[in-house]
Every structure is written in C-alpha cells, then in structure tokens.
Design a protein that fits this description.
286 residues, alpha/beta, five-stranded parallel β-sheet, elongated
Length: 286
C-alpha cells in the first residue's frame, strides 16, 4: 500500500517528537490533545496539527507580497528555522529579543508594518503578540499544551520546545507554501533537507570548522609551493617570457658541440634547367 504525503508528513512529525506536549494543559488546548501518557505528558493529535499547517500555508500564500510576513523566534532552538523559512518563503525574520515598539512606534529605526506574524512560542514572544493586537495584525503561532492563546488567531498545536520539532514544523510549513505557489510539485520535489532547519549547537559548529581548516590549509600549501625553476625567471608552467636560456645551458646552434654552420644555398638562375641527383647517390637501397 502506497503511503500518501499526509501519512508521510505525520510520520516525520512523530520522528521529530512534535506530538509530545508538557505535563500542563490549558483549557483552550484540550481540543488538540489525543491522550495523556502514564508519566503525565500530554500527546497531541497530529492529524489536527497537519490540518492547521495546511490552513496556515493557505493564509500565507494569500498574501501577495511575502515581505509583509514576519516570522519571530526569541527561543534559540527556533532561530535557525525562522531564518530558513524567511529565506525560502521570501518573508522577513526577527530572531532574538524583540525590541518593544517595532510594530507600534513609527519613530523607531526598525519599525515595520507587517500583515501577518508567525510566532514560534507565544510565551517567549508575548511582546510581539501584544503589539500585533494593538495594530490588528493576525497572528499564527506554534502552541504547546501549556500555551496561552490570548492574541493568537490560528494556533498550530505542536511541541515548540524541541529543536528537532521546531525545525520540522517550519520545514513542513515552508514546503506546503512552495507547493501551493507551484514552485514544488510531485514531479519537481523540494531538494532541501530538513536538517537545514534544525538548531546546531555551538560546539558542533566549532568542530565542523576545525575539521575544515586543515583541508583548506593543505590546499593553500599546495598552491603556494614553488615549482622547480620558478625562481629563475620562469612562470609556474616552466615558460620563460624573456626567452633567455637557463643558467648553465646553451641555446640554439651553440648547444651542438663542433657544429659548423652550412652556407646558404644559392638560388638558381631564371630559366635554368633543374638538375636531379641520380638514385645511386643515395645508396643501394634506392
């Protein structure tokens, strides 16, 4: 039996642990909970998560100018996903601390007037949600079981605290947007890996850079090595632009020991018959 795209997406959400909530659940998030485990952790219904992702993608595609969309993440685990989402979807991004007044104070340097906000966590990005309420800006947010839905227009129920879960959510949302725009299709699949949306620890980045430095140093050392004869007026390919012979070597006819220059042949007079040598002059083989 062939696996549909919806089933494949839900399997990816399960692998990234997007279905795991917290031990607390607000009354507004109860409708999205499937059950509660023995250890007290609430489990989301991923079918509703996938449906909310589809709804959010339709709303984002309906906005003509993608630059009017702003994705925000103050949580470090979601910052890379927000940057990648903004890059592929053509939106703007705000990572780190949200400066108060970015949506309300026109005198501020970073003032913006977005038509839609995408929030990673309503708890850490509460300032942006409050300003969006002042300016009547709709808000789409990834909400956990303990999230407050005040000021949120569309809540996408999912785990918004795990680095793999946040990356998977932004990757799926970006792919759905590109599919609805016609950029990605079944015959032309999206070739961007979900790993590009995952948060990377600083130690992992340093290890990758440390492994890359010796390889770059080896390539630079090979290119900087001096070839034989290069310091004697020759270029890296062994050619002497000045045309001067190398030290200790003769050039031209002087290189042959005991060579005597032959006299130039005289031209025959006009109309004189041409004399040919007899075959016997060339030996018995002729």
């Amino acid at each position: 039996m062939a696996v549909t795209m919806k089933e494949n997406d839900i399997q990816n959400l399960l692998a990234a642990q997007c279905h795991l909530g917290t031990k607390n659940c607000t009354e507004h998030m109860e409708r999205y909970v499937y059950r509660r485990r023995n250890d007290g952790v609430f489990v989301f219904n991923l079918e509703k998560t996938w449906e909310k992702l589809q709804m959010a993608a339709r709303i984002i595609v309906a906005i003509e100018n993608p630059q009017d969309i702003v994705a925000i993440s103050a949580r470090p685990y979601g910052q890379r996903g927000v940057l990648k989402f903004a890059h592929y979807a053509g939106a703007n991004s705000i990572v780190g601390r949200h400066t108060p007044g970015s949506f309300t104070n026109q005198m501020q340097k970073g003032f913006q007037e977005p038509r839609l906000l995408i929030i990673t966590d309503p708890r850490t990005d509460h300032q942006a949600i409050r300003e969006a309420g002042y300016m009547n800006i709709p808000v789409i947010a990834f909400c956990d079981t303990d999230s407050d839905l005040a000021g949120v227009d569309i809540a996408i129920p999912a785990n918004n605290k795990g680095k793999h879960a946040i990356g998977m959510l932004y990757w799926l949302l970006t792919r759905m947007i590109l599919q609805m725009r016609g950029t990605v299709s079944t015959s032309n699949p999206w070739d961007v890996m979900v790993d590009m949306f995952f948060y990377r620890e600083p130690e992992e980045v340093k290890e990758a850079e440390a492994e890359q430095e010796p390889a770059e140093a080896a390539e630079a050392g090979f290119g900087a090595a001096q070839l034989p004869g290069e310091g004697e007026g020759y270029d890296p390919y062994g050619y002497n632009p000045a045309g001067e012979p190398a030290t200790g070597f003769a050039a031209g006819f002087d290189a042959a020991v005991g060579f005597e220059a032959a006299a130039a042949p005289q031209a025959a007079a006009p109309g004189a018959p041409i004399e040919y040598a007899a075959p016997e002059a060339f030996g018995s083989q002729f």
